[in-house]
Amino acid sequence: MAEADAQRFRGIEAATGQPIEPDYPISTVADVDAACAAATAAFDAYRETDAEARAAFLEAIGEEIMALGDALLDRAARESGLPLARLTGERGRTVGQLKLFAQVVRDGLWRQVRIDPAMPDRQPLPRADLRMRMVPLGPVAVFGASNFPLAFSTAGGDTAAALAAGCPVVVKGHPAHPGTDAMVAGAIRAAAQRTGMPDGVFGHVAGPGNALGTALVQDPRIAAVGFTGSRAGGLALVRLAQARDVPIPVYAEMSSVNPVVVMPAALAARGAALGTAFVGSLTMGAGQFCTNPGLVLAVEGDGIDAFEAAAAEALGGHAPQPMLTGGIRAAYAEGTAALAGNAAVRELACGQAGDGVASETARLFVTDAAAVRSDPALTEEVFGASSLIVRCRDLDELAAILDTVEGQLTATILLDEADHEPARRLVPILERKAGRVLANGWPTGVEVAPAMVHGGPFPATSDGRSTSVGTLAIDRFLRPVCYQDLPELLLPPELRDGAAGPRLVDGKPA
Amino acid sequence: MAEADAQRFRGIEAATGQPIEPDYPISTVADVDAACAAATAAFDAYRETDAEARAAFLEAIGEEIMALGDALLDRAARESGLPLARLTGERGRTVGQLKLFAQVVRDGLWRQVRIDPAMPDRQPLPRADLRMRMVPLGPVAVFGASNFPLAFSTAGGDTAAALAAGCPVVVKGHPAHPGTDAMVAGAIRAAAQRTGMPDGVFGHVAGPGNALGTALVQDPRIAAVGFTGSRAGGLALVRLAQARDVPIPVYAEMSSVNPVVVMPAALAARGAALGTAFVGSLTMGAGQFCTNPGLVLAVEGDGIDAFEAAAAEALGGHAPQPMLTGGIRAAYAEGTAALAGNAAVRELACGQAGDGVASETARLFVTDAAAVRSDPALTEEVFGASSLIVRCRDLDELAAILDTVEGQLTATILLDEADHEPARRLVPILERKAGRVLANGWPTGVEVAPAMVHGGPFPATSDGRSTSVGTLAIDRFLRPVCYQDLPELLLPPELRDGAAGPRLVDGKPA
C-alpha cells in the first residue's frame, strides 16, 4: 500500500499519556506478506555471504544507530519514560551486541564444523566422508519489546543473533515506541544498502493490535520467532506457531519473579545493607526488567527485621517513575492490588505515590511460607516494582518453597562464608529452576557475553534450551546439516579440505 | 502392581503372524507413575555422577547386551522378521553407540563450558565472573521404534544420548518386540546395578495401546521425549506435550521419502547400474527404513529408460520379506494401492508376491512432474519397499518439484563430473529440505559418528534443530545454565579454576 494511503498511528509520551508527533503508517497484512516474500528471496544469497561481509553489515547497523545521535535517545526517552542515562547505556549495549555478533561470525565457532574423514578400507563396511555445519533456519520474525526500546527491540538481541546466523529478519516493531522503531529500522536498512546486502534481508512492519503479529507468525515462509514480553503474548504466539501446517520454534521470553534467597549468616551480618541494595535493584527502571527481583526467600532469624526495615525505608523514599505503557500500568495496579487484598499478605512499605496517570508506586509485601504453600499463585510475576518477601521457618521450609516455584530466568543466593556449606543443597534446586544462578549480586543487569544465559525453564521462556542474551543466542536460529561424500565443488567453502576455521575432526578439536 | 496379578501380552512372530511364548506383564499407569517418581528421585544424583562413572555405566550396558548372546538376536529376529545378519549388525551398532557416547562423556566437549572472567576494574561498570555449562533437562521418556528393535529401541540412540547427558530414562518398549525389549531392559538394569547408578536411573514400561505412552508424556516429571515412528504417532505425542501445564520438547522422527535426484550425465553414463543399486537400497529390510529412497527425480533423456528397466528387472526378482507388524503391512498395502489406483501413476514393476499374511510385495511406480504439481500428496511417505520415479522435462522442472517436497531426513544427488556445475543450484534446495545431503550413495545406512545428522525439517522430524543419530544427539537433552560470581564450593567441579577439560574463555578456545 502506498504510504500516503495508509492508516496512521502515534506514539504515547510515557510521562504524560499524551500522543506524540509525528504519526506513522500502520502496516497491513499485505505488507507482512511482502516482507516475508522479500526475506525468502534474500535467504539463499544472505546465508551464503562470507563472514567478513556479514560482520561488516552488523557493524554498519551499529554505526548507523550511533549516527542517529541524540534524536534517537530523546525519542526513546519520550516514548518509554526511561531516563536518558539509562537509554544512553542501552544504546551502547545495542551497538556492543552487534559488534560482538560480528566477532562471533568472524570466529566461525558458531558453524560447529565437524569432519569425519572417509574410511574406504574399514571392515565390514567402508565409512563415507561426513562433514557437518550449522545452517540458518530461514527468515525470522522478531517482536520488539517495550521495556528495552533499543537493546531488545528493532535492532536488539534477537535481530542481531538472527542476522549473525544468516537469517533474514522481519521485525514487528513495538507499538509503544513507533518513533524509536522507525528510526532504528531506517538505520538497519541504510546499513544493508551500504554493505551490499540483498534486498529483503531486513523487513519491518509496525502498528497497534495483534493482526500483524498473527499474520507474521502464520506466514509459511517464517522459520522461527523471537519475542520478549508478557506471558499471555508469548503463549499466544506459541499457539499460533504450533497450529501451522509446519510448526516452527518460538523463543518467547515471558515471565519471571527471579527468586532471591537470603542465607542466615549473610542476613545476620548485613541484613540492613542487603535490604537497601535489594530496593535499588527492585526499583531500577520502575521495576520493568525481566530480571526484577520479585520474590525474596529468607529464614526468620537474626537480621531479617533489619533487612525489612532497611528495605522499607529505602522504598519509602523512592520517587515514582513513569511506566512504559498504560497497559503495563494497569496490569501492575491489578497485580499489586491483589497482593494487598490478600489476607495472608502484609504490605511492608510503598514508595511515594504516583500521579495515577502515567506513573505507579513501588510496593513491597511480606508473607510466610505457609501462605505460599496454600496459594502458589502468590509467587507469580507482577511486572513492575513490586516484590514479595517470604519468611520461612528454616532452610528446609525455604528449600521446599523454592522447589515449588515455576521456571525462572534467574535465581540468586545472598550468602556469607558460613553459609557456603548449608547453601550447597540449594544449588541443584536453583539450577533446575533457572537459566542463571547468581551469588551476592542482583539479577538486574545482564552482561552481553559468551557465558551469559538469559533464558530458563518454562514459563520464564517458551524454550529453556536457549538464551536471548549473549553469543550463545546465535544457536537458536541454526540447525545442523550433514554432507556425505559431496564433491568439492558442491561443498560449502568452510567444509572443504584445507579451509580455515575451527573444527572437530573425528570428534576432536583440530 | 505385583507382576503375578498383571494383565499379560505376547509378541507376534513377524513371519507367521502367530503369537510367541512367553507372555509379558502389561504395565499400568501406576507403573508409569512409579517409574517417573523413581527417575525424578535419581535425577540430582545421576546428573552429578562424574564422567568416568557415567561412561562406565554406558559401556556396561553394551557388555550386558552382548552377554545376552544369540538368544537376544533370535528373539529379535522372530519378533521383527528381520534377518539375523542384519540384527547382528544392529547389535554391533547399538553397543558401538553406547561406547561412542561413553567417549563423548569422557571428552567433556558436550558440557560446552564457557568462562568469562570477572573484570572488577572495567568502566563504567565492572563485569561479574560468568561461567556456563550445559545441564541435563531431566527425566526423558523414550519410545522404542519397531524398525530398529535394538539400535533405536530400549537401549537405542535416544536412551544412550539421554543417559550420556545425565538424564534418567523411562522407556516405553515397543509392543512389536516385547521379548527383545524385556531382555534389553534387564541388561540396562543389570548395568546400572553393577556400576552403582542410583535407583530409578532407568525405568521401563511395556504393553499394547496408547494409554501408557500418553500417561508418560503427560507426567509432569518428564522433561523431554524421544520417539521414532509414524507421523500420526509422533504428532500425537507432540500435541500431548504442548498441552501440558509445562510444555516439553518432543524429538519425534516421523516420515521422510528421501528424494534421490539422478543428474543427466550420471543417468546417461550409468543409468542401468544406478537402477539396480537403487532397488538394492529400496528393498533392504523390506524398505522399512526412515531413510528408504521413496522418491526419485530424474530428467527425461539418455539413460532414464535404462535406469527404469534395470530397476524393474531387479525388483522383479525380489523375494518378499516379512514386514514388522500387521499395522505396518496394512498401511503399506493401503499406500501402494492408492498409488496404483492413481490415473496419473503407472506401476513400473513389482517384486514377487507376498503371502498376504505377513509379507508384502515391493512396488515401483512412475509419474511425471505435472502429476506431482497437481497432487503433491503423491510425494508423501509409504513406509516400506515402495518408491515413485518422477520424470521431469528438464532441470528447471526438477528443481521446482524438489522445492515443493516436505522436510526430509535425507536428500541424495547422483552425479558425474559433468553434472557438478549444473548441480550447484540444487544444493541450497537440498540443504533447506534435509538434514543430510548425500552424493553418489544411498540414504539407507546411517553412520553413527560425530558429523552425522539424522534429523531434518518438519515433518521429517518434529524438531529440525536436532539429530537422533551421532554424538550431536546429546545436545537435545541439554540446556545452558550460567553461574555468576558463585563461590568455589558452590560451583560445579568442571567450572572451577584449574579444572581440566575443554572450554571457551572470553569466547575463545583455551
UniProtKB/TrEMBL annotation, chains A, B:
Domain of life of the source: Bacteria
Keywords for this protein: Oxidoreductase
Pfam hit, one: Aldedh
Gene3D superfamilies: Aldehyde Dehydrogenase, Chain A, domain 1, Aldehyde Dehydrogenase, Chain A, domain 2
Protein name per the record: NADP-dependent aldehyde dehydrogenase
Native organism: Sphingomonas rubra
PANTHER family named in the record: ALDEHYDE DEHYDROGENASE-RELATED, SUCCINATE-SEMIALDEHYDE DEHYDROGENASE, MITOCHONDRIAL
Domain Aldehyde dehydrogenase: 5-449
